Amino acid sequence: MSANKTRVLIIEDEADIRRFVRMALESEGHEAYEADTLKRGLIEAGTRRPELVILDLGLPDGDGVDFIRELRAWSAMPVIVLSARSSENDKIAALDAGADDYLVKPFGAGELLARVRAQVRRHAYTESGTPLVKFGDIRIDLTLRLVERGGQPLHLTPIEYRLLTCLTSQPNRVITHRQLLQAVWGPGHTEDTHYVRVHMANLRKKIEHDPSMPKHILTESGIGYRFVLDT
Amino acid sequence: MDIERPDPDKLLSQVQADEARAKRGKLKIFFGASAGVGKTYAMLGDARQQVLRGTDVVTGVVETHGRMETEAMADGIERLPLREIPYRDRVLKEFDLDAALARKPAVILMDELAHSNVAGSRHPKRWQDVEELLDAGIDVYSTVNVQHLESLNDIVSGITGIRVWETVPDRVFDDADEVVVVDFPPDELIERLRQGKVYLPEQARLASKNFFRKGNLLALRELSLRRTANRVDDEMQAYRKRSSTAPVWPTRESLLACVEGGERGEKIVRSCARLAAQFDVPWHAVHVDTGASAVRSERQHQEILRVLKLAQDLGATTATLSAPAVAPALVRYAREHNLSRLVMGRSHRHWHWPWQKAIGESIESEASDLDILRVALPSHEKAGNDATGTPQVPARLRWKGYAAATAICGVVTIAATPLLGLIDLTNIVMLFLLAVVGVALVFGRGPAVFAAFIGVGLFDFFFVPPRFTFAVSDVQYVLTFAVMLVVALVVGQLTAGLRVQVDAVTERERRVRGLYEMSRELSATLMPEQVAEIGLRFVAAEFGFKSAVLVADEQDHLQTMPGATAEVDTGVAQWAFERGVAAGQGTDTLPASKCLVLPLKATMRLRGVLAVEPGGKGLLDPEQRRVLDTCASLMAISIERIHYFDIAQKTTVQMESERLRNSLLSAISHDLRTPLASLVGLADTLQMTHPAPTGQQLEVIESMRNSATRMNALVNNLLDMARLESGAVQLNQQWQPLEEVVGSALGACTHALERRPITVNLSPDLPLLHIDAGLLERVLVNVLENASKYTPEGTPIEIRAHAESDNVVVFIDDHGPGLPRGREEAIFEKFERGRRESATPGVGLGLAISRAIMQAHGGTIRGETRKEGGARFIITLPRGKPPTDDGTDELPDRQP
């Protein structure tokens, strides 16, 4: 595991949480840098060149969403957002701005480390650029636009295919309704979230064994979806 | 191509009209030439067929006149009991409108559409009852004779010599959805009459001999068929317009009727209404007030108002114009309103001065492009109005004027006598001229002319040689006399006209100023009471009427504002308020009421009513009515402004307190959660320290972590409850499948439900639901966690959902001990738990929060113990109207 040593930047104003996150990361062998304000965080992100950022949304000197926008201008590094439970809109705004995942306080060290691992893995996966995606008994050939389930060809509508490929291209990442709408229907329909939901329900029926207890296409209530490769 | 294409706006208005029509009941009229042709019989026959078809038909009123065959037809159709109205010392029976509206049948039979209701009914006429029935969506069958049509009324009376007073406006007849002509050959009708098969009321029996002559019957038959043919033609025109089979170019040759009082005015109005109907054009009816109205008798004034009201009933736009002369006023009005044809009575004067023109002629010379239609008028009655503009001065004033003229001339004579010889005779003439001008200025034309004659006489007698005789030696004085007369006439005419104009202008200015001042005062008001007070003051100052203002409160109940001087009949006020139309005196509805009630119509909705009590004066003239309407709308706008001002203020306060509450709650939640988050995290890191903690240490760490997590759950619940209770939660509702929420809820309690078999059975036809996914997930999680807490490990949990007509119902069943008996509702209370003193963790907020969330969604949640054991939670959610569009067609045109 220590071969995957990752440089992580923690931006959080609470010293206790910062300390605990750092200790958890270091126990896994990662290298952690700390920043307690947004400004400090931006400087650290520029100078330390971390491979992953853990960002608290409730910082005293600014909006975390602005930080993500600024970061996304020059870097694609994964960003995990820490937020309070009740502020759904903040989370959606952060995800829309380009954050990759979120954690709700309070969270355990195990949870945190799992997310970090998933992001690092995803990064590697996306860069591999393989035209074949496999999960469960599903196999997608991106070049042939072919989807098979248990060796049998699976018929998907064009919308379902697009939704599926959009999800599978970014495993472990939380994708908001808005991002999916934009990717499939274009920028004119970002308010019609029921489009996504209707087709996602159909897609689940074809992909999942039990659509009400999905294994791969998970719902993030009120936020969007997360695609999970084999766990 | 373009010509054929229907105008979209027109299509829209047509669709809207169709919709309004669809809601309204249908009116079917059985139309006949005279009594006895069998209209009632035909109507009953039709109704019986409807009954056989299963339609809910009710008889409102049917006059069988004791005829056996008609009675037989009327049997078997439900009869609505009549209302008994005490009238003087008798009790009269009348149709009961309210009972009919309450009974709300599909079809109601209302014989004799033209019938006048007994005094004390809501409407004076039966056709108005019928309108209200139609508005309520009830189909009406009715009967009409041709002589009862308003516009044909005078023609029929001309043919038969019998005047019928009960009439139906043509509009009602034309707007009827179906007209069935009941035709009967005159010979057979006369035969039936002879056999006594036609019932006639006692008073008509005498007239019947004249009435039922073959010639009359033929003429009436022709009239009714022709009228129906016109209607059919209109329908055809409408059909052609609608289906765009051919372009139809409507010519807007609108008509302007110049109205005077009395029977002549009525004649003009009726003729004009008929013409307008034939050409299918709008028309106006105008009376020109030459300024004599102030001194004209009240009776004449009322006459004119009555004629204008008739015109209004026949569909005209009416107005009274104040102007010194009729012709220019009419021309100006016609130009302003784009009316190309004038309809007027044939010249009412048998002679006139050679320099005076009849109105028609002066219009011809003033505006040659206007068509003038002359209507023959009955000659036996003297013209009710001096349309030529001669002011009729009341006798007393007239005598005063003439006496003053005589006196002034006398004074001039006495004053001039000593001057004789000192100054020239021509200059003495000037003194007399001065007197004439003075008289003209003060008393008008008549006394001026009189003064001219007296002056001429006195001058001739006392000053012109030979003196003290009327003989004139020098012919040139004849010229002097003529000049004096002409000057008197011209000056008198001018000043009279000027005075009329000045009066009119002053009057108008006074009204405008009154309205202006009122609106200025209204703009400063902050309470509806102030608006009412200003309105009452205005009505009192402007018209001298008693009045009252009623303002609707939040529940649409009318509240009388303080300071009311008039007593308002609440029935009339309520009616006017509900319908948004004027009611009471001078209108079609409840005209017997003392008050005229005007609705206060603002932009968004009705705000109340203004009631005025015009006293004994009866009808208001259109000008007064317009000022009253303006006053009412000014008040309505002010009340609305105040209303919105209040709302804005309340909203600001609410927003402020909401902001405060939210920042307080989030501060609390942040301050409580942050240490808990650190605690959970630090406990976790403690496990990772080196050297690894021992078994006992691990146990302590584990229970530390669990306590912190539980504490966090409690804080969450308390904060959520506080948010939900304060109403600070705004639902983020979106249309989504239930399956998704169930899935994420199960995902969220994976840990709690670890060793339990869970079956989910959602029916495949579940619609999309309009829900806040996050909150609904909490409801499900709360119920599931409850189940896991209170049932033994390993027992299964089942989730099922199916759609009902209005709701989607979700069942969550467990196989535990079930809910405590008798406390199925209590468990949803705050801080309430199934079993007291239990070792199971929690404070009992979960279900209370769930219930609050479900209530916010318009749904319900309840629990019960199943017969076979185990608890069942039942969640219902309203279906609403899910969007049907799923975006398949919205896909951008590119290959996937």
What is the share of helical residues of chain A? Answer: 40-55%
Distance between the termini of chain A: 17 Å
Strand percentage of chain A lies at 15-25%
**SSE run of chain A:** EHEHEEEHEHEHEEEEHEHHEE
Sheet with most strands: strand arrangement of chain A: 2-1-3-6-7
Instruction: Count the beta strands of chain B.
Output: 25
Radius of gyration of chain B equals 43 Å
Please, could you describe this protein's structure?
The complex is a heterodimer of chains A (231) and B (896). Chain A is of the alpha/beta class and 231 residues long. Chain A is 42% helix and 23% strand. Chain A has helices at 15-27, 38-48, 64-72, 88-97, 109-128, 158-168, 177-185, 193-207, and strands at 7-11, 31-35, 52-56, 58-59, 62-63, 79-83, 101-104, 132-135, 138-141, 146-149, 152-153, 174-176, 217-220, 224-227. In chain A, helix 1 crosses helix 5 (109-128) and helix 6 (158-168) packs across helix 8 (193-207). The longest helix of chain A is centred in the middle third of the chain and has 20 residues, at 109-128. Chain A is globular. The model of chain A has no long low-confidence stretch (mean pLDDT 86). Chain B is α/β, with parallel strands linked by helices. Helix content of chain B is 49%, strand content 15%. Chain B is built from 25 helices and 25 strands. Chain B has a six-stranded parallel beta sheet with strand order 3-2-6-7-1-8, sandwiched between helices.
